[in-house]
Each structure stands twice: as structure tokens, then as C-alpha cells.
Specification:
Length: 732
Amino acid sequence: MCDPLHRRPERNPNFLLLLLSLFCPLSAGAGLPSGWTDADIGGPGLAGSAAYTNGNWTVTGGGSDIWNTADQFNFVSTAFLSDGSIVAKVTSLQNSDPGSGWSRAGVMFRNDTTAGSANVAVMVSAENGVVLQWRDIAADTSVETTISGVAAPVWLQLVRSSDNYAGYYSYDGSNWLQIGTVQLLLNGPLLAGLAVTAHNNSALNTATFTNVSLTSQTFGVYREMWTNLNSSLGDTLVALTNSTYNTNWPNHPVASWTHVFTNFETEINLNMNYYGQRVRAFVVPPVTGPYIFWIASDDTSDLFVSTDENPANMAPIASVSSWTSSEQWTEFASQQSNPIMLQAGCRYFIEALMQQGGGGNNLSVRWQLPNGTYEQPMAAVSSAGTLMIPSTGVNSLPGIYSQTTNTTVVENQNAVFAVLATNQAAVSYRWFSQGIRLTNSSAGQAVYTLSNVSLSLNNGQTFTCVVSNSLGTVTSAPIVLTVLADTVAPTVQEVYNVGTTNVAVVFSKGVTAASATNLANYVFTNGLAVTAAALASDNVTVTLTTAPLAYYSNYWMVINGILSRAATPVMIASNTVASFVASPYVAADIGAPPIASTTVASTNGVTVAAAGGGIGGLDDQFNFQYELVSGNFDVNVCLAGLGLSDVWAEAGLMARAGLSPGAAFTASLATPNMAGSSRIVLRPMPRRFRVGLFRRTTRTPGCGSNGSEAPSPVLPATMVRPGPNWGPPRSR
């Protein structure tokens, strides 16, 4: 039996994957393959049959037709849960009704085995060509699209994508011609298989098939549904998730509505009331950084994301407490999550719960990538590299779909190794090097990072990952690490002042402590004295202590003698010149906003263009212009203008303990629609902190300038720290 979750060949190590399918070859031998059954539909006058041997199918069917409001034929089929396709080559077909030529054979998706079941099929007839035919409602009239002049032998293909179906035929199995398309609302789990009718209830018709394959999607979003919820509770998720009212929760959904979607969006306006659904997946982010999620639904919904692929670690991040229109993302503030840091290549469990009362219904989820791109709704496979794997919670033998291949990096850089499992339940990871289990923080994750690789220690090392669950383990192919010597000299990336007596120099790569802290290597052209130098733990940032700087003055520095941390150190270019303008504030983007900020300083203020998700909750995302202070202070600023990029765009004053997204702070700020008022935000503060201006919007003109955006309040803001007992700021 085919297990699509066994280890797969290595693929793109960066996980920029296209939608790939799982092909399950049917097992050889007499009888039907495992999971397949044969049935006569609609009580034909003569019993049909099906047999399979070494890839060859022989199906014999009687019956009057597959047409009108009820069918009579033979159907050999298997359950099919997700989107995908069925392909078969009809190698021969008898003409059991010569008068009409409508005996036929082909491939079919069908709701059930009743005679009037909704279905869609691609079939070839004895004399009348190929057809795409369907019945969209049980016991309703059938409809077809016909292309004449085609006869067996011929290849047939039927493709399902959510509620969209397409039929094709081909003479060689490679070059396909479309017959037509149709949109149908069939069940989640379908019957997929081979259909044969004699079009003559007193005869049998035999057709032979080869190259039969079912292709199901590897990536998708898994939906379960519960119907007939208690209507007396009103619009609340309690009707779905409280087993007192919904005795089928959580383990007995309605099987016919289970489905795997190609994006995080279910049907719109199903014409059903009092149902609920649970939609789950493992999402694999394409890049590392902060992601923001939104949910939209009719009626209520909750959205959860886990810190890893374990559902036990999920937490609520967004919700809808009443209803929204389809993909209406901004009706309520609760629809949007705070920024959530995710690691590229790791699997994160995501789940949405939705309850429908009466009227319209919908459910969709979108997210914003760290670069500001929206994927709405979230796609199972996107051009940006997003992947979503259905989370059914059903264990199967662990498998590796793709993994990093042999990797080459330059010394002192990081080497990143990754494996991707498409198991539909959580798995565990263990990384090894040279057969020895690794123990650092990422050694138990799908993505392992080896920091600051060494030419002497790491060149030629081999790494493997063991993926496991309760059913077994699988080991990745060995990954060989090649480390190249670093022959490129360091350069200066950035220079800026921090207050009046500190200057930060940021190099392009790690530098040696001895060269970085040698005061003789830094010379200001105006003779400004350098009295101390300290290298930060990142090995790229050097903080110089200098004689007092004059704000808004230009400074030039000549740098020599700085060495890289390579095994054979490389020296910075002789007489490297770096310049900066001394500013009262240091600019910092907190929480990695999707768009980098820009700052223009002048003698009477500062103009900041910035972005970010917000200030408050557990994490912040905004731009912060700050200076280091300690002790008591009394500061104020004139906020001359604030662009209307959002009604909750904010700007004002902040005192902050640090530059991490979750650092303690207190702030006094204004928004464009506050009409002369301001609000106070507080996260408990320590005794030492940074104080400055902040912004999370698109533009803040300096005092006295004219903004080009919508009018906004001109507010003086003051923050006071009167003594050792720190309290909320005052706005006046």
C-alpha cells in the first residue's frame, strides 16, 4: 500500500516549492487494490464486475445509462479526501448499444453510491466522442459538454480544485486538451474511480483501463464540520465546542463535509444554518521574521497559532465576536493579531474555529509577511514560498518530503540545515553531527542553525536529522558542510552617535577584539579625542567613547587596522573614511517593521517616516528615536503633524527600558482622530531606560512644517519622572 509520507527525494533546500502531488501506484496482484471496492449503481439488469492485475483494469458494467436524474452502471472506486485528480487510459471499449453509440467508460468523482447521487465524470463513448458530464444536486438532471470524433484508446483526466472541476483528454498522456470546466458543491470526501455503463439494460459492456492514478495534494488546509448545532445559544462558539450542547465535539464531525482546501478559506454562503467548523494546518513560513494574522467570518470565530507544531502549545491570537463579510479584515480590532515571530522552514500549527447561526456564512484567514506582502487568504502554496500542510491529527510513519542538500558557507557565517515533513500530525526532530547528538537550542527543531562556522572545526562535517513519532523514525540523507576561507576585508556599514560622547561603528562582518578596541585605529579629522572602545557581543558593533560632540555637526573618521575574524585575518582597506551627522536621537526600528524607517533631522525637529503593527500587548512594532537617560527627567515635544495612514497611527513620547519588542515602557501619544486628546500606555518600567520620540505610521512632519497628509492634531506632549516611584506620564 502506498504511504505518501515515507521519505521523499531531496528538493529545493530553500523550500521555494511548487505544488507537488503524491502519486500512489496501485499494488500489483489479482483482485482489487487495497481500499478499492466495486459496486453496481442503480440496480442494473445484469451484474457488473471489476478486476485488476499488474496495472491493467477490466471493468464490466450493465445498466441503462449515466444520465438524467438516476444512473445505472458499474463503479469501482476508492475514498478521495482532498483536491487532486484522477487519470486513466481507456484502452478499449465495447459498443453494447450500437443503435445509439452511447455505451461509455471513464473516470468519475461521486458523492455516494445512490443512483441519483451528485457526480462529475469524464467519459469516452463508443461512437459519440468524449464528454464532461455532471449532476450538481442529487436526483437532478444531468448536464454535459461533448467533443465528438474522439474514441478509445484515449487518456482521460478529471481535476478537482475545491469546488471547481475540469475535464481533459489526451492521445499520449502528455499533451492534454480541455473538454470543459464546471463548479459543483460536492462532499469533502468523495468516491473516485472508474465507471462503465452499457447504455443497454439487457447487455454488459466491458472496458479496459491502464495507467490509472489518483493524485492528491501534499499541501492544503484541513476542514471538519459539525451540523445541527443548538440554535438556542445564539451566535457563540460554545454551541460548537461545548460537548454538553454538541455531543459530537470534538471527535465526530460530519464525514461528508471533511475537505482539504488549497487556501485558508471555506465555502461562502453555503445556504446552511447552525453549523460549526474547525480548520487546521501546519504553516511553514517562507522567511524568518514577524507575521501578522487576520481572521474574517460569519458568524463568530477564533484563530489560534502554536509556538511550534504541537497543538497543545497553541494560543488565541484573533477573533470575530459577531460577523463580517467575506474577507472583510478590518471590521473589528480583534480580527488582527499582534506580530508573531516565526522561523522560516519550521512547521507551526494553526487552527480556526467558526460557528454559523443564520443567514450568510464565510471563513477566511490572511497574513502579512515580514516584507509587508499580504497573502489573502493564506495559500497552501504561494509564490512567496508559503506552505501549508493539512493537520488531520492522524499519525503515520514519519517521512521527509525535502531537506537541505550539501551546503557551502564562508567561515564565521551561519550554516542552516532543514528538513520538511508532510506528516499530518506533529513529529519530533533530533539533529546529529558525525553521529553525535547535538544539544543546542535549535537541535530539536526542523531547522538547525550552526553559528559562526569554523574553517578548522566544521569543514567537512556531516549532519543528519532523525524525524520521529510514536510509529517510528526516518533519518535524513547526510548533509556535508564545506567551509570556505574568508578572503574579503571588512567594511564600515554604519556610523552614528549615541548621545554626545558615544559613537557606534558597525562593520560588515565580525572583527577581532584586539583590532576593534585599539584606539589608534580611529582618527577624527577634526581632532576629536577617542578615549575608549568596546566591541559588542555581535562582534560587528564597536562603541567609541569620545570628547563631547556638537549636535547637527558633520564628523569624518579615518579607520585603519581593523581585522576580520577569519582563520587568516583580512584587514580593512587603508584609510577607510566614515562620516555621520551628530543627532540628539538614535533611530531604531523596534520589532522589525515590514518597511524600514527614514529620518531627516533639522535644527528645529525631526521628520520620521515609519511603519509597524502597533504599540501595546505583548510586543511592539514601530520606530523609536531615542537617547539614553537615567534618573529623573522632564521632557516635552510639539507633535506638528501625523499622517492618516490608519485611524490608530500613533506618535508621541516614550520612555523605554530596552530595544526588544517586549521591553517595558511608558508613553504619551496621539492619533490622527483623537481631536486634541492623547492616550497613555504603560508596561511596567525598571530604573534605567531610554527616552525619545516614537512613531508607527507613514510620516511625522517636524514642528513648524506642513504635512501633506490629512490634518492631524498639533499637540504638546510632556513626560515627567519626578522621583524614584515611576508612574504613568502626564499629558498636558
